[in-house]
Write a structure and sequence with these properties.
The chain has helices at about 20-25, 30-40, 45-50, 60-70, 85-105, 115-120, 125-140, 160-170, 175-180, 190-210, 225-235, 275-280, 290-300, 305-315, 320-330, 335-360, 365-370, and strands at about 5-10, 10-15, 30, 55-60, 75-80, 105-110, 150-155, 215-220, 245. It is an alpha/beta fold. The protein binds tryptophanyl-5'AMP.
Length: about 375
């Protein structure tokens, strides 16, 4: 792993060089040709594809080829319920919803209350299951189709998943798991088995429907190590290898690093009150100059300005407007105070809307959830 940044399923540190990371992980970049193929089927390109927020993949070309021949895939994504949902988590979910709509496909959504219990010393199993149900409200609020979306927590859907987990686990040696995840002598034995659980939904629909169905996983690239295991095992169990489409990370509001629940002051949670969200944004790192005068003279750097990055990742769908926001930052036309105020209004509006949908979701949980 490169010295300047670290990306694992449990930790993302430093300023990620995505070119390097894709090379290290051995994934493929999403190129123009692939974008054209998606656009041809979907009729448009989601802004997260146009901007290269979803930038890398494994076997996406194969998924599209199968789809073109009438063989539909299903989507699989998830959440590790270690706390409330933050807007970083919404990136892959909003994109997954778009995929579901455009390709008219089913979605399996796994909540790993087992994983987060095993890796977070401070959380009880009751805590992670409770957070799972809090997170489910956010998932439903994103707007997935209840007819085609199946959400489950691992502890409540364990019986259905366990046999397949065993079959997967038998093919994964400790030395492979150690190399992929960095387990060591002091790792608890629960977490060394867990990667088999996260691999299960890659194949579960094929088992339930008694025919091989291609799987496409949208997620940020931190989850990729899991899919290496799943892809390794797939042919040995007679399944297709799961395909992936990987996103970059929306940064936190501080000077570096991805948005992460372990940095609550620089993270916007979907459960934050609109005023708290505003306060967090007003205190954000903008990467601008020390004084207004210098900012006007020298300008700032939109690549490291978290305000610019928020527009880019989520809060402005119009590419032209994003370009203007970046230009204004670069030229010093906009000062960071005004810039933050405008974004704060946008984010407040987003949170108010999301929280309304989240409230309504409380009566809809049973439309989505699978249990044994
Ligand atoms: P978790 O809960 O860490 O993250 C949930 C999803 O959010 C993505 N993500 C981000 N995306 C953009 N910007 C960020 N700052 C950011 N932070 C997190 C993650 O990549 C993930 O897609 N072990 C998993 C749960 C899981 C899962 C899956 C995830 C089980 N099955 C299948 C994806 C696909 C976890 O703890 O995710």
């Amino acid at each position: 792993m490169n010295e300047d940044f670290v990306v694992t399923p449990w930790e993302v540190k430093g300023r990620v060089d995505y070119e390097k990371l894709a090379k290290e992980f051995g994934t493929s970049k999403i190129d123009e040709k692939l974008l054209k193929r998606i656009e041809k089927i979907a009729g448009e390109l989601h802004f997260m594809l146009r901007r290269g927020i979803f930038f890398s993949h494994r076997d996406l070309d194969w998924i599209l080829e199968k789809y073109g021949k009438g063989e539909k895939f299903f989507l699989y994504t998830g959440r590790g319920p270690s706390g409330h949902t933050h807007i970083g988590h919404l990136i892959p979910w909003i994109f997954t919803k778009w995929l579901q709509e455009k390709f008219d496909v089913e979605l399996y959504f796994q909540l790993t209350d087992d994983e987060k219990f095993l890796v977070k010393r401070e959380l009880s199993l009751e805590d992670t299951t409770n957070y799972a149900y809090e997170n489910i409200l956010d998932i439903i609020a994103v707007g997935f189709d209840p007819e085609k979306t199946h959400i489950f927590t691992n502890t409540e859907y364990a019986k259905t998943q366990y046999k397949l987990a065993l079959k997967i686990a038998k093919h994964v040696t400790f030395s492979t798991a150690k190399a992929v995840f960095g387990f060591n002598e002091s790792s608890n034995i629960g977490i060394t088995f867990f990667p088999a659980m996260q691999a299960v939904p890659c194949f579960l629909p094929s088992v339930l429907k008694k025919k091989n169905i291609p799987c496409l996983i949208p997620a940020a690239i931190d989850q990729d190590p899991y899919w290496r295991i799943a892809r390794d095992v797939a042919p040995r169990l007679g399944f297709y290898k799961p395909a992936q489409i990987h996103s970059k990370f929306i940064p936190g509001l501080g000077p570096s690093g991805k948005m992460s629940a372990s940095e609550p002051k620089t993270t916007i949670f979907t459960t934050d009150s609109p005023d708290i969200a505003e306060k967090k944004i007003m205190g954000a790192f903008s990467g601008g100059q020390a004084t207004a005068e210098l900012q006007r003279k020298l300008g700032g750097n939109p690549e490291i300005c978290s305000i610019c990055q928020y527009y880019y990742f989520l809060f402005e769908e119009d590419d032209e407007k994003v370009r203007k926001i970046f230009d204004d930052e670069r030229s010093g036309k906009i000062l960071s105070g005004e810039h933050k105020k405008e974004l704060a209004q946008r984010v407040k509006k987003f949170i108010i809307e999301h929280q309304k949908k989240r409230e309504k979701a409380k009566d809809r949980i049973e439309e989505f959830v699978l249990r044994d």
